[in-house]
Amino acid sequence: MKTFQLLLISLLLGHLCFAQDIKPQEVRNIMKKVSDWQMDHINDSYSNKKPHHPLHWTNAALYVGMAKWAQMANDDTYFNWLKGIGNQNNWQLHERKYHADDHAVGRMYAALYRKYGEEEMLEPTIEQFGFLMHHPANTKLNWGSPYHQDRWNWCDALFMSPPVWADLYNITGEQKYLDFMLEEYKATTEFLFDAEEHLYYRDERFKGKLDQGTKIFWGRGNGWVYAGLADILSNLKPQTKEYEYFLDIYNKMSIKLLELQTPEGHWAMSLLGQKFYPTPETSGSSFFVYGLTWGINNGILKGTKYKKAVVKGWNAMASYVNDKGMLGYVQPIGAEPGNASPDKTEVYGTGAFLSAGSEIYKMVGGK
């Protein structure tokens, strides 16, 4: 009995030690610093020669994290900023009706609808998704097929569109949104998920292709998928068949990601190629920290090994924020492992960082 008590005390002290490594106020402070810098620099050119369109997928990923920060901030500045973007664009999705990237801004609209309850915020998304359900794309998922990106045939798409469908299901209670999303998600997973490695290929072009003798699983691409899984699961009822489907993928990826974290705390740009891609990459890594910490906070991922991983991961991400609040080591727009440097950032990296911070804050006792 005494041995058991000592073991229990040891485990509790270990848990407290992890929590004490990160202070809630420190998380708030760095999230504010990063969000404020990003708002001041929203019109920088980043990966392109001109600023991103406000409804572009890059900014949409930023808004996902910014909305999470706005809920924590005790300051309407951030919600007002997001609401202003919606009003200026008449709450429309971006240009392409079928393309998942152009659905992603719907994530922000759903977050604002949950706060303000104004129907105009969701009406265009509901109308467009209704059209998609009645006129589904019939293209194959093969990369060379005509209009192939009218369906989710690249793994990033699983962050961009499916969580919006899950949001609409959760908000309206209408099963049709979940049914459509689940069918398409299953098709993508059957096409791109590696059953041996429990990771997603970016798209068909990378299946069977090797880099330095390793399969190519793009870090950020899998970060998109993993963060999207957490957001989908947040919208579903536990113990339902849909929840169990997504939970199975989430659990398989979680175990694999724990194995692949580098000693420094980040994840490599090519997840199986740490040796060949030693440079940190903060957009994918931040989304992994977000998804793992979400699992801890929701009682899905249990044990000190996960807490150790997210503490190490968060501390690494925070160390790449410069004195002004810019998050460095964000890989520019791309579709495969590449380059990142301390002086390079992108809006989606900020969004991933803020998402991670929102869950880390909860984990360490923030209210």
From TrEMBL:
Pfam families: Glyco_hydro_88. It comes from Arenibacter troitsensis. The keyword Signal applies. One of its GO terms (molecular function) is hydrolase activity. PANTHER family: UNSATURATED RHAMNOGALACTURONAN HYDROLASE (EUROFUNG). InterPro entries: 6-hairpin_glycosidase_sf, 6hp_glycosidase-like_sf, Glyco_hydro_88, PolySaccharide_Degr_Enz. Residues 1-19 form the signal peptide. This is Rhamnogalacturonyl hydrolase YesR. The keyword Signal applies. Gene3D superfamilies: 1.50.10.10. One of its GO terms (biological process) is carbohydrate metabolic process. Keywords: Hydrolase, Signal.
